[in-house]
């Protein structure tokens, strides 16, 4: 029914993602290894396709050292903001700084992020994705098109894919889903990982006409992967009244296929996205709320420090040498430090 015109090759996984061009649309045909690809019982060689190599080492959603896409997308706007502040001589919002008597900490850690501000940062990252997307665009997927699969019964405007949404609009959409489904802040970070993985794996762009359904699919998967008590697909139909269970199931299925069923998020990748979101908040004056260090919190920090100290005490003792050669007097010295 269609002609195979392109094939994407992943050297790291030895997989081939075949796409068909059928009636003006790009349709994923499947993922195969080279031994699986035949045509009329004749093995297909690499000369029969145009290959685009995907270097997984530079995929930010898989590799911890690769820079996140949203952070690079935000750089043009950050430079313009800094230039505007310099020209108008307006300083940034004053921040609280710690002193000898008072220490200010934010209620946000990599293991327990702040829900409200994490959602704000993720919404801002999606906003930069949409605003600074590539003009040429990538392949379009009908499952994410809000014209073909509307989320409400209200009529979709004819120019629905022409106007970029504001950051507040994205935030309200994500916050509504997270509040109704009682999702965690960690789930929001995993959602952003899945969105960037979808953009790189499927070679598509997120824009005004598909961002809601992309986020919905990413949130759906993230809640099932991360949370112990996942939200059922039918539960999202209670949040979005006009969407059907069949539509949610199809959205989940195609999202998984486009991700090549790779839903694993390593801890190193998760930590990278967390700290890059913090960097994004700093450059956009969206800093996390600072609170003075209370006595109760200080005691908990001291307890954690003592626990870690006891944990590694044996390792430190094992690293000490009972004797040293005269030829090598330089050794490891363990000096206790007093923090006050």
From TrEMBL:
Residues 172-257 form the Cyclin-like domain. One of its GO terms (molecular function) is protein kinase binding. InterPro entries: Cyclin-like_dom, Cyclin-like_sf, Cyclin_PHO80-like, Cyclin_Y. Transmembrane segments: none annotated. Keywords: Cyclin. The keyword Lipoprotein does not apply. It holds the Pfam family Cyclin. Belongs to the cyclin family. Cyclin Y subfamily. This is Cyclin Y.
């Amino acid at each position: 029914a269609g002609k195979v015109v392109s094939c994407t090759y992943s050297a790291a996984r030895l997989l081939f993602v075949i796409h068909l061009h059928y009636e003006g649309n790009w349709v994923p045909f499947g993922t195969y290894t080279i031994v699986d690809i035949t045509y009329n019982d004749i093995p297909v060689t690499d000369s029969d396709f145009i290959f685009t190599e995907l270097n997984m080492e530079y995929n930010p959603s898989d590799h911890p050292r690769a820079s996140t896409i949203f952070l690079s997308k935000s750089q043009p706007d950050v430079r313009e903001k800094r230039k505007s502040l310099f020209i108008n001589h307006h300083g940034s919002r004053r921040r609280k700084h710690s002193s000898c008597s008072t220490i200010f900490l934010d209620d946000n850690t990599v293991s327990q992020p702040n829900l409200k501000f994490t959602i704000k940062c993720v919404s801002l990252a999606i906003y930069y994705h949409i605003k600074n997307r590539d003009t040429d665009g990538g392949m379009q997927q009908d499952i994410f098109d809000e014209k073909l699969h509307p989320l409400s019964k209200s009529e979709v405007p004819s120019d629905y894919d022409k106007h970029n949404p504001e950051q507040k609009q994205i935030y309200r959409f994500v916050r509504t889903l997270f509040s109704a489904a009682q999702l965690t802040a960690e789930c929001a970070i995993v959602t952003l990982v899945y969105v960037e993985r979808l953009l790189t794996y499927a070679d598509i762009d997120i824009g005004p006409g598909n961002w809601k359904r992309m986020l919905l699919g990413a949130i759906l998967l993230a809640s099932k992967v991360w949370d112990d008590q996942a939200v059922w697909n039918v539960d999202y139909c209670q949040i979005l009244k006009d969407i059907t269970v069949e539509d949610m199931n199809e959205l989940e299925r195609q999202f998984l296929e486009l991700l090549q069923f790779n839903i694993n998020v390593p801890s190193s990748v998760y930590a990278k996205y967390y700290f890059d979101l913090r960097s994004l908040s700093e450059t956009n004056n969206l800093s996390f709320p600072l609170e003075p260090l209370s006595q109760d919190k200080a005691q908990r920090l001291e307890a954690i420090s003592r626990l870690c100290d006891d944990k590694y005490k044996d390792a430190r003792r094992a690293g000490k040498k009972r004797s040293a050669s005269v030829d090598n007097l330089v050794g490891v010295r363990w000096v206790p430090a007093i923090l006050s």
